[in-house]
Amino acid sequence: MFETENIEFKLKVTEDLYKEVIAFANTDGGTVYIGIDDNGNAVGIENADENIMRVTNGIRDAIMPDVTMFVKYTVQDNRVLRITVGEGTHKPYYLKAKGLKPSGVFVRQGASSAPASFEQIRAMIKLSDGDTFESMRSLVQELTFRSAEKAFSYYNIDFSEEKYRALGITRGADMLYTNLALILSDQCEHTTKIAVFKDESNTVFYDTKEFSGSVFDQLEQAFAYLKLCNKTVATYEGLKRIESADYPEAALREALLNALVHRDYSFSGSVIVNVNEKEMEFISIGGLLPGLSPEDIRSGISQPRNKHLAEIFYRLRLIESYGTGIRRIYSLYAGCPAQPRIEVTQNTFKIVLPNMNCIAAEKNDTAISRQMQKILDFIDEKGGITDLEIQELLDLKKTRAFILAKKMRDEGMIRTLGRGDGKMYVRK
Predict the structure, then answer these.
(1) Which CATH number is 192-301+315-354's, of 3.40.50.1970, 3.40.309.10, 3.40.50.2300, 3.30.565.60?
(2) CATH number, span 7-121
(3) What does the angle CA 128 – CA 133 – CA 138 come to, to the nearest 5 degrees?
(4) Predicted TM-score of the model (pTM)
(5) What would the pLDDT profile of 143-163 be if each residue is shown by its tens digit?
C-alpha cells in the first residue's frame, strides 16, 4: 500500500494530522493511517484508545467548521489507527488558529496536502455559501467597526454583537464574519475614486482622490469632495442675485449612494466618479441583474444586488426605499434641456449627470447666436440697422439691445456708422 490522493501515512499523532484531515475534507475525502511509515510498513502505535481520544478532541478543537460528523475511527490489529475522512459539505475547513487563508486551509494535491490558494478558498466558499457575495464568509476575519458604530449610533440604531447575525454581519454556528461585515468594517478592501478632468474627453487630470475604509467613511468623504466640485454660478434679475449650483446636491447624493449600495463587491475594482466641466459620471462595477433593463430602473423597479447592505442603509435613513433614488434624480432634472443618462454594460452601471449651469450657458449662447444672425440678416436686407430696430426686431429692452450690439462689434461682426439719431450698424 502506498500514499495516494486518498491515503496518507503517519508514524504517530502530530499536529500535522489536522492538516491532512482538512485537506481530505476540502477535497474528495480520504484515509489517514497512524502507525504506518512512508514505505507502507505497519510499525504500530501504543495506547490506541488513548490516541483516538486525543485525535478526536484535537480535530474538534483545532478545525473549523465542525468536521467531526465526517470523521470515523477504527483500530486495525490493535496497532494501526485508521481515520476515515469524508468530503465535507461546509467547505472550506481550516485551522482555527490560522483562519480562512492559505496558511490555514489545505487541499489534497497528489499524495500530499498543500495550502489552498485564495482563488481555491473563494471557490469553496461560493460553492458552500451560494452566489450571494455579501452573505459569504469573509476571507478577512480580523475586523473592527469604529465607523459603523458611529453611523449606527448617530441614528440611535443598536449595533451590538447580539444584532450581528440579524444584520447579516455574521453567519453559522462559528459566527464568522461575512463579506457584508468586511464592507462595513474599517478594513474594507474596496475604494471610491474621484477624478476631476480639465477636458470633456476625460484625458487631462486636474485632481484625483481615493477614499478607503468603511463604506460609511467612503460615502461621507466622497460626498464632501463632490460638494467642493459642485460650483455655484450667480446671475442677476435687476438687483436680485440668483445662485444656482452646477448639480442638484440631492442628485449627487443619490447617484453616489446608488453606486456604493448596488455595486458588485465580488470584484476588486473601485467605484469611479469622473468630473469635467460638462457632466459628472458615476460608474459602479456590476451590470444590471438578469431581467432588469435601464427603463425598469428609471421607472423605479429595483432588485438589490446587496440586500442586507441596502436594508442597513434603509434602516439608517440614508436611502428612502428601493428604487426611489434614480426616480428622484430624474425629478430633480425636470425641465432641464439635458437629462441624466443611464449606460449599462455587462459588468458596469453608469449614470451621467449633466452640469445644469453648463447646459443653461449653452442654451443662452445658442439664443444669442440666433439673435445675432437675425440682426445680420436684417442688415443684409436693409443695408443697416439702428438701436431702435434691434429692440423691435428682437423684442429687447434698450440696455439688452445695446449689450448685444456691443458684443457683435467686439467680435468684429458689425461696425458703427454715424452718431446720435443717425447712428446705425452695418457689416464690418
Answers:
(1) 3.30.565.60
(2) 3.30.950.30
(3) 75
(4) 0.70
(5) 999 999 999 999 899 999 999
